């Protein structure tokens, strides 16, 4: 007897010798499973980055995200992952990092104390995290995130500070982990003049490590240099930053401050399409993420769409445009 033929999709094909085959019953298609309800929480975080291999989780490395994720997963009894506004590099600190985490709705009550207290909803969670986390990372606050909030893509701008000490003795012991020693003179006025040349919407390829498919066009809204006694403070604000961009900007300004380059040289670097080797990246030790700005709640989703759009060279600020 001839075997019935089978088509490429696994269905029966009619055989001329035997006539049409009976119609096979329709396969039962399982009903789609409704996704579990999630509650998004916003976390405000501070850390001493000295002994961390940056924010982002890495195999066999001690990272900030790894520490926070582990503590949260312990409390909620399920694996959760944080997403941050700024994925800081190895050795970089934060006093104003912002992250979000999605928690299954049924796990949220695990954050509450057995005996309700008259206090903010997630203050008990903050206390428990304080007991679980290592001393060099703290979750300062936890709140329910508004609709449309994304710690990374909702952000309007990030604020960083870079601190150096020009004191002949180096850095005072209490500041040793957060200030870079630079015990030689710096011309702050020249550095400030150079910084003004870099502000605006520009292609910062000369100041960024190359990443395939990533844009290096950024809106540098503030680059200021000030002196406070022996301390030099560089304040940097942008809508977003490329990998190592802040420390590269500071490194270029230091070349100007030491008199190795003229102020105008920094602006000339903006014409490059490759990472420049004409200056060194400033050490991570002096850099701190100090804050992240977000729009009003009703503008959060629109901001995400803007942030995800990849900028092109046509948008870059140029004289006369």
UniProtKB/TrEMBL annotation:
Role played: Formation of pseudouridine at positions 38, 39 and 40 in the anticodon stem and loop of transfer RNAs.
Location of the active site: 89 (nucleophile)
NCBIfam families: hisT_truA (TIGR00071)
Binding positions for substrate per the UniProt entry: 160
Subunit structure: Homodimer.
Domain Pseudouridine synthase I TruA alpha/beta: 194-295
Catalysed reaction, written as an equation: uridine(38/39/40) in tRNA = pseudouridine(38/39/40) in tRNA
EC number: 5.4.99.12
Protein's recorded name: tRNA pseudouridine synthase A
Record lineage: Bacteria, Bacillati, Actinomycetota, Actinomycetes, Mycobacteriales
Region annotation Disordered: where it falls in the sequence: 1-26
Protein species of origin: Mycobacterium yunnanensis
Gene from which this protein is expressed: truA
Similarity comment: Belongs to the tRNA pseudouridine synthase TruA family.
Protein's UniProt keywords contain Isomerase: yes
GO biological process: tRNA pseudouridine synthesis
CDD domains to which the protein is assigned, alphabetical: PseudoU_synth_EcTruA
Keywords: Isomerase, tRNA processing
Xref: Pfam families: PseudoU_synth_1
GO molecular function, one term: tRNA pseudouridine(38-40) synthase activity
């Amino acid at each position: 007897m001839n075997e019935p033929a089978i088509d490429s999709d696994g269905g029966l094909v009619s055989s001329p010798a035997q006539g049409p085959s009976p119609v096979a019953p329709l396969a039962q298609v399982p009903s789609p499973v409704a996704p579990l309800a999630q509650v998004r929480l916003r976390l405000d975080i501070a850390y001493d980055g000295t002994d961390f291999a940056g924010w982002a989780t890495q195999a066999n490395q001690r990272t900030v995200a790894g520490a926070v994720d582990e503590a949260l997963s312990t409390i909620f009894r399920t694996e959760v992952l944080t997403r941050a506004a700024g994925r800081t590099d190895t050795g970089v600190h934060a006093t104003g990092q912002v992250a979000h985490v999605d928690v299954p709705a049924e796990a949220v009550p695990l954050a509450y104390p057995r005996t309700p207290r008259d206090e903010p909803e997630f203050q008990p969670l903050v206390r428990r995290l304080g007991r679980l986390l290592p001393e060099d990372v703290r979750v300062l606050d936890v709140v329910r995130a508004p609709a449309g909030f994304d710690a990374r893509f909702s952000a309007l701008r990030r604020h960083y500070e870079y601190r150096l000490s020009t004191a002949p003795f180096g850095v005072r012991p209490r500041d040793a982990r957060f200030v870079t020693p630079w015990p030689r003179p710096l011309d702050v006025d020249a550095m400030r003049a150079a910084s003004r040349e870099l502000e605006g919407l520009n292609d910062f390829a000369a100041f960024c490590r190359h990443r395939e498919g990533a844009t290096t066009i950024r809106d540098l809204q503030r680059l200021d240099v000030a002196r406070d006694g022996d301390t030099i403070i560089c304040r940097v604000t942008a809508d977003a930053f490329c990998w190592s961009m802040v420390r590269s900007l500071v490194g270029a300004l230091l070349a100007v401050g030491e008199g190795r380059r003229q102020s105008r040289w920094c602006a000339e670097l903006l014409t490059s399409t490759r990472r420049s080797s004409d200056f060194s990246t400033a050490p991570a030790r002096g850099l701190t993420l100090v804050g992240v700005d977000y729009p009003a709640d009703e503008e959060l989703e629109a901001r995400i769409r803007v942030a995800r759009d990849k900028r092109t060279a046509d948008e870059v600020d140029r004289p006369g445009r």
